[in-house]
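Q: what does this look like with iron/sulfur cluster bound?
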Amino acid sequence: METIEISDSSFLIQSLNNLDKGDNTFECMSCGACTSSCSWFEGEGGPVPRQIIKMARMGLDEQLIKSGMLWDCLLCNRCTQNCPMGITMSKVVRKARSHPDAGNLISEDIQKGIKSRLSTGDVNGLTKEEFVETIEWMSEEFADELCDPKAKIPYDQEGAKFLYLPNPRELGINLMHLTAMAKIFYASHESWTMSSKHTDVTNWGYFVSDDAIAKEMALMVIEPAEKLGIQTLVLSECGHGYHVLKVMAEQLIGRKPTFEVISMPEFILRCVENKTITLNKDLHPYPIAYHDPCNLGRKSGLFDAPRQLLALCCKEVVELLPNRENAICCGGGGGMLQDSKSFNKRMITGKAKADQIIKSGVDCVAAPCLSCNRQLGDISKHYKLGVKVDTIAALASKSLVIG
Ligand code: SF4
Ligand code: SF4
């Protein structure tokens, strides 16, 4: 039988023991409540949260890293909801992912994306010149579509009040989403801009738990935005992007950014409340289910604004129960969706969400996160749910009354 050496000077024991009270693994009672609430619980493989905690606090660094559990964790914190000691699993797993020996297990796709993001400002490697060319061309189409030669998608406008930070997909395979967001800004008559220097709301430094990289990526957004003198940074619908730029930014960069950070649904809701835009809910005369993205809801506390906005865009908002703090992860979090080899795993972790959607009986699901949307679309196809998936802001744009 193999003898396992337990070292109390291990990286994990040293670093996890330093976590705040409530997140300290040494407070774990081994009750197993976390394990039964994990998205992997009824599926094959995946992390066993109680085991992660046990291995970490025994200093079994090498065994834990080799187990693969760290990279299968969705960082969703659903298990944390049920932990009587309140141990925040995403903090434990992120700390363990930052182990010096864990780096070579990072997926090739994530490594490549991080390299591109750090060199160009975009995870897909879109250069500044390509950004300008894309936006100039889109602007022309936008003016034609709205029959208004003054309508445009502005960029690098100093003194604009709002800066829109897109998801990289909006400058690649989902240009229509960017046009939909531009329509909302156009209808609001607010001064807004995009920036050719930072074109990406995502921050994969968060997934790999390298705070130096996460900080650099956050600063790549924050510093040019401050130079433009904006008042509010409006984030494209992105769960982890919101969590990093809204919740973690101050701790990451050591100061508060000079502007406010909000998500696109929050911006639209403000416009409706200020009566600068009008929405027509009759355009979606059917119930739509709301999915709570873990990073936006449970981890950042944004529950109500997207729901309120959705209620203004459709006949009825259907809750996928359990919801809000107890919501079930879509199954694509923690960097899983960004790994092209993860499809089979994602379909296992998405099964509980698929079951929830079936139970709700809806034909349409909306989530304020483009990553959740992609995962929900994949599980809809895989489990033959036949549901249409949209973002909240895209639904609002379709409901917009212009003119
Ligand atoms: S954070 Fe989510 S995926 Fe990770 S162990 Fe907890 S419930 Fe499972
Ligand atoms: S629920 Fe909390 S206390 Fe119980 S085993 Fe999991 S981490 Fe430990």
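Residues 37-40, 47, 49, 73-79, 89-90 surround iron/sulfur cluster (ligand 1) (CB under 6 Å). Residues 128-146 form the longest helix (19 residues).
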